[in-house]
Every structure is written in C-alpha cells, then in structure tokens.
Design a protein that fits this description.
The protein is α+β, with helices and mostly antiparallel strands. The protein is built from nine helices and seven strands, in the order ααααααβαββαββαββ. It folds into three domains: 117 residues, no CATH class; 63 residues; 144 residues, Histidine kinase-like ATPase, C-terminal domain (Heat Shock Protein 90). The chain starts with a helix and ends in a 17-residue tail after the last strand.
Length: 369
C-alpha cells in the first residue's frame, strides 16, 4: 500500500501546488516520494512507486489530460528519464539502507563480543584471584603449621621432661627457660598474624600525638632487651630532632619488628645501629645491621606477606616486614631497604611531620596553689 499511497499523495500535492504548468517541480516531488518509499519498505515497492509515479504524471499532467495518450513524443523521453532516475535513486537508497543495516548488525555483534570479552575478563580476574588466594592460603598454612608445630613440640617435650622426678635443678631450670622462650616465640607468631589481619582489614587506627622519637626508640629497646643482650646497639638520635606526630604503640611495634628481623638474619654478636635525622618534610629513622645484606632484586619483595629470604633463626611466617610497611603507610610515610657499604642492610623509615605541636597552656596566675 505504500507505493500507491505515495504516488497518489504526490499527485494531489503537485496538482494543488503546481498545476499542469510546473512539470519539473512535479517530477521532483514524485522522485522524493519514490525515495521515501525506498527508505521505508524496500526495493520492490520503490519500483512499483516509480511505475505508478510515471503513470500518474502522464495521466494528470501531460496533455491530453486524464488519458494515457501522449501528443508530444518528447514527453516519452521525460517519462523514460524519470523512470530511470527513479530506478537509480531506488537502488542507491536501497544500498544505503543495506549498509546501514549491516552497520547495525556489526555494531550488535561488536557489542555482543565486547560483553562476552568483558565477562570472560572481571571471570579470568576471579579465577586469578582464586588462584592467588589458594596460593596464599597454602603458603600461610605451610608457614604457620611449621612455625607453630616446632615450638609446640619443644614445649610439649620440655613439659613432659619436667614431670620426671629424676632431673636435677639445673636441667629443670633449663627446660623452664626453653618453655618460656618457645612460648614467647608462639606469642610473636600469633601477634604478627593478628596484626596483619587488622592492617588488611583497615582496622588499624593511628592515634597520632606529638612525641620525641627517642622515647619510642627507648621503649622498643627495652622490649628487646633479652634478645639484644649479646649485641652492641649503637643509637644516634640528635638532641635537636623535632617532635613527630605518631602513634607510639605502632611505631614501637615497627622498631621491634625491624630489630627482630635483624636478630634473625645477622650473626649473633654483630652490632646494630639505630639512627635518626631531620629531613625537609619529616624525620628519617634507620635500623642498620652487619649481616649478609639483601640479595639484588629482593629489595621490594621482602615487604610482601609470607616472603622470607632463606632460613632465619627462630623461624617466622614472613609477616614482620609486611606489618612494618602497613604501619608506615598508615602514617603516610615510606619504608625501603638498601645494602650498606662493607656489608649489611639498612631499613629506612620516613615519617612526615605536618603542622606544629600545640604549645602548652600557660598556668593561670589567679589559680590557687
């Protein structure tokens, strides 16, 4: 119905607007109707619209009117040209429509492929995360099972020996000290596991207060007094160091972890150093040792969870340095390690200093003593 309707509509408009004198305008209106039919319903109906348009043009506009007879044979050329142009326009229009449909199909296929690739990817990512989780779980289980089983076995054996009546006082004391040492080792392992869990869960709250750095260093050395009894610990903390906004408990734990790491990986009687210097935007602390140093390429990996270089005295699950990194990042600082000239490693901790500490309130002179 589109072809007859378009031909009749073009005829009615042309008759009303142009009459039988403006034939070129009428032809253009017929051609426009053919293009519209071609765009809407396809090539076949557009051919029918072309035939009907030529017939209507002859019947209503070419003398003698209202008949298909033609007095002037030159109009036959007009009919042929009009029909040929209608065919060409219909073909071109149909080709454009086909290309548009093909483009829509390509777009749909591209969108489908994109959606598929996206689903296969966030899936690949899930599979990768699952593999990493399994690897981490295996690493955790292997490390924790070994490092927990060993001190538990020692504690069990020592406790069983204490039940015997035949042991002397010196042996009993030695076994008791062994139980105490292994219990402390277990406590460190469990503490590190809990601290790492809190850091990863974002449950670590940094309660910054302006404090002198030497007090935090002194508290950490007191906690490590027994482990450092056979070592020389050199401290270089200038008196003009500024107050630092820090969480004393967390920074003390950081220093303890760094010292414990040095005790594990360095010769038993090698010296340790703790230095601090004021920098442009903060304070830098350095914990240095005279051990074997860090193998090339391992400077960043040693701060990863469950990563250990070789074997260390006293075991460990490879969380101490990862906890240090988490504590420093929670303070907005930086931590890195470098090898020392002459052997050993230096752990650098930078803590930013922003703002200034509040001045203490002056006493009220009118307040009663």
């Amino acid at each position: 119905m589109a072809a007859p309707t378009s031909a009749l509509l073009a005829t009615a408009v042309s008759r009303a607007a142009f009459g039988s004198r403006q034939l070129a305008d009428a032809v253009m209106l017929y051609l426009l109707s053919i293009v519209l039919v071609s765009l809407r319903v396809g090539y076949g109906p557009s051919l029918l619209a072309a035939v009907l348009s030529v017939l209507c043009f002859d019947f209503f506009f070419i003398p003698p009117l209202y008949t298909f007879a033609v007095q002037d044979l030159t109009h036959v050329v007009t009919f042929g040209t009009m029909f040929l142009v209608a065919l060409v326009i219909s073909g071109l229009t149909q080709r454009v429509r086909a290309q548009a449909d093909a483009a829509d199909q390509r777009e749909q296929r591209t969108a489908a492929l994109y959606a598929l690739s996206r689903d296969l990817a966030q899936e690949a990512h899930s599979a990768q995360l699952q593999v990493q989780t399994e690897q981490m779980r295996s690493s955790l289980l292997s490390s924790v099972s070994h490092d927990l089983r060993t001190p538990l076995a020692v504690v069990t054996g020592a406790a069983s020996s204490l039940l015997e009546d035949s042991i002397d006082a010196s042996t009993r004391r030695e076994l008791t000290e062994t139980i105490l040492q292994e219990a402390q080792r277990l406590n460190r392992l469990v503490r590190n596991l809990l601290d790492m869990t809190r850091i990863e869960a974002g449950a670590v709250r940094v309660n910054r207060e302006w404090q002198p750095l030497e007090e935090v260093v002194g508290a950490a050395l007191n906690r490590m007094e027994d482990a450092l009894a056979a070592r020389q610990v050199l401290t270089d903390l200038p008196a003009d160091l500024p107050l630092v906004p820090l969480d004393a408990v967390l920074i003390q734990q950081l220093l303890v972890n760094l010292l414990e790491n040095a005790v594990k990986y360095t010769p038993p009687e090698s010296p340790l150093e703790i230095r601090a210097r004021a920098r442009a935007a903060g304070v830098e602390m350095v914990v240095a040792d005279r051990g074997p140093g860090i193998p090339p390429g391992e400077e960043q990996r040693i701060f990863d969870k469950f990563y250990r270089i070789g074997s260390a005295r006293g075991g460990g699950v490879g969380l101490g340095l990862a906890i240090c990194k988490g504590i420093v990042m929670a303070h907005g600082g930086q931590i890195f390690v470098s090898n020392r000239s002459g052997g050993g490693a230096e752990f650098h901790v930078f803590l930013p200093v922003e703002g200034e500490p509040l001045a203490p309130e002056a006493p009220d002179p009118n307040e009663e003593m």
